[in-house]
């Protein structure tokens, strides 16, 4: 609510690796990258806190950011991307950030995004 009132954002930022329900869905292969991508077009403002393999090429990450920017331009709304490339980790690995930030699963290979 504060982001809507103060920043005039037209949606919610969905923090994939900060939401236990989404983490559980990823663990059971019930959530793919396509769902948060699709939500950006309708009701969210982007991809948030998504850990990806550290070997993901910079060109792929740039393409994802460009896709989100294009959605924002077309829909005339704010969009954003917070991807976390984790060096030395691959699909299925867990990364511990800190006691404050917790942990995340590296679940999505970005080559599947195009």
What is the topology, as strand order, of the major beta sheet? 1-2-3
Approximate helicity band: 25-40%
Q: Rg, please? A: 14 Å
Shape: globular
- What number of structural domains do the residues give? 1
Number of strands: 5
What's the pLDDT, averaged over the residues? 75
Order of helices and strands: HEHHEHEEE
- Number of helices, counting only DSSP H or I runs of 4 residues or more: 4
The quaternary state of the protein chains shown equals single chain
Strand content: 25-35%
Largest sheet: 3 strands, parallel
Q: What is the end-to-end distance?
A: 33 Å
Structural class: alpha/beta
Contiguous uncertain segments of 5+ residues: 1-10
Question: What attributes does this structure have?
Answer:
alpha/beta; 3-stranded parallel beta sheet; two-stranded antiparallel sheet; 114 residues; 4 helices; disordered N terminus; 26% strand
Structure characterization notes:
The protein has 114 residues and is α/β, with parallel strands linked by helices. It has helices spanning 2-7, 20-27, 34-42, 58-75, and strands at residues 12-15, 44-53, 80-86, 94-98, 102-105. Helices cover 36% and strands 26% of the residues.
What is shown here, in short?
With 114 residues, the protein is an alpha/beta fold. It contains four helices and five strands; from the N terminus they run αβααβαβββ.
Topology, pairings included?
Layout: H1 2-7, E1 12-15, H2 20-27, H3 34-42, E2 44-53, H4 58-75, E3 80-86, E4 94-98, E5 102-105
Parallel strand pairs: 1-2, 2-3
Antiparallel strand pairs: 4-5
């Amino acid at each position: 609510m504060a982001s809507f009132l103060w920043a005039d954002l037209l949606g919610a930022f969905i923090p994939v690796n900060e939401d236990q329900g989404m983490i559980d869905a990823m663990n059971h292969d019930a959530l793919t990258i396509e769902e948060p991508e699709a939500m950006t077009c309708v009701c969210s403002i982007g991809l948030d806190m998504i850990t990806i393999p550290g070997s993901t090429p910079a060109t792929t990450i740039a393409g994802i950011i460009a896709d989100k920017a294009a959605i924002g331009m077309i829909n005339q709304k704010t969009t954003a991307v917070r991807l976390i490339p984790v060096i030395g980790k691959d699909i299925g690995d867990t990364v511990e950030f800190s006691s404050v930030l917790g942990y995340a699963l590296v679940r999505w290979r970005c080559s599947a995004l195009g």
